[in-house]
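dumping the sequnces here before i forget
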Amino acid sequence: MHTRYLAPELILAVTALLLLLLKVTGRRLPGLTAFASLSLLLAGWALWPLHEENLSFLGGTFLLDPLAFYFKALFLGTALLAFWGAAGWVRRNPETAPDFHALLLLETAALMLMVSAGELISLYLALEASVVTFFTLAGLQPERPGSLEATLKYVLSAGVSAAFLLYGMSFLYGFTGTTNLEEIGVRLGATAWSPLLLLAGLFLLTGFGFKLAIVPFHFWSPDVYEAAPTPVVAYLAVASKAAGFAVALRVFTVALGALAAGWSFVFAVVAAATIVFGNLAAIPQTDLKRLLAYSSISQAGYLLLGLAAMSRPGLSSALFYAALYTLSNLTAFFVVAAWEEASGRTDLAGFGGLARRAPFLAAALLIALLSLGGIPPLAGFIGKLTLFMAVVDAGQVWLALIGAALSVVSVYYYLNVARVMYVEPPAALAAPGSPAPAPAEQTSPAILAGVAPTTLLAIALSLLGTLLLGVYPTWLLRAADWAARLFWG
Amino acid sequence: MSPPLHHYLILAAVLFCLGLYGVLAKRNAIVALMSVELMLAGVNLNLVAFDRYLGSRYLGQVFALFTVSVAAAEAAVGLALVIALARRRNSVDLSEFTDLSG
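..and the predicted 3d for all of it:
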């Protein structure tokens, strides 16, 4: 039966709907984090035996291949960490907690379906399911300043990008008379290149670019990152980008693979623009969540280097990069969430003297940022190195040079955060609802006591991942190579 | 005698562009949401027209049906947001929403 192949997604969806039903009864729901974690572990248990499969099912609607498996495992792990990291936020918002858990589970299921989609309609449906869930997640705290505006902006830009995506898809369908990606690839292989086909590809890129938040489709992301609840942003920043990368990869290599050389150039240009813009725009930011938003934009550019290379090493290093970028970014966002919980501030000045107040949080943030900047011996260094090598191998030396130069720029603004945390005097605390205590009284244990233990655990785990992957990257590199093996033989 | 395919495609492109113009130029949030629907109408016309003229009979129509239902879900969330904003701000003018910038 085919149910087995979709069991992980079904488990997540059923538990999410169960949560929503329980919420309607109006009872207080204890142990939400444990319940959601259990659901994810169960899904992981159902997913594991599928790693040997390489097939398409339900008439080609869904694919189950190593690439899909890699991303599904990544999403489950990310969601697990996200639930733990969100524990403090959940404690503060008991009203919306069941919705948060249910929606995040649904989101995970939608992203897992998205990376499995083997056909335009299922791809579109999974993408929309994830986007509509994210609208709701982003607007979960309407009382946050700017939350509703940012979400409305997000809805409108998502709507426009979905329309572009569909318009591109409609032309692909018109050219080939089928919606199956592999079939499209076969039938397009015979037709000659045409301007309309190029236009269709660019429309598709617009749709995926929005999901990836790459230049020039990034404009929504800093606002949403700043105004949405921090745990939601942590998940949005990593999982959504990875899924966008996976579908772009499938469409542009399988369906439009006949024009690979042309797309490689388009991706190279977009990646370069994204890296340059994201890193330069991050420099003047005064809010740490906005700074991380621009840094995430530039990271998506680095991911795209893997697509620009259009080679198996390029893809596998992009997959590796996606995993370690997830870990480092989660660490950074969880620290921001923890500090926001303790002090009520996310602006950069609010992190002043963090090293004296909460040395663990400061060190975790520093290591995560250095990893994102690509400093050895952290995981980010190996990720960037393998990406640059793949790009150079593909003959795009200029792209590697741009990437390396802008990495240095990124280290500048990451180190600026470190300077604020380690050199500047402690900032005044503005805990909501309580008069700010004198900074001198705020000792490290007192602050850490205000942070949920599971949040600290999530920070510690993702940090451990960043450190371990820097020293022992081989196993994940091998896994990424295994996941990439079906592309470009 | 029905009109040739490209007539439909041109009409669809016109609808799409009108919708895009509406989203970019109009200040009213509800009009902007309606313009997104107009873009999708263009897409649906494309899909159905291709279906009719390429003789593949049903796939495009199924796609169009899915598009319609998903667009309804999207519009539901969008309108809910507009209502929440209107309650707080007493306005649905996008240009007045300037809390975030940079």
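The first strand of chain A starts at residue 55 and ends at 57.
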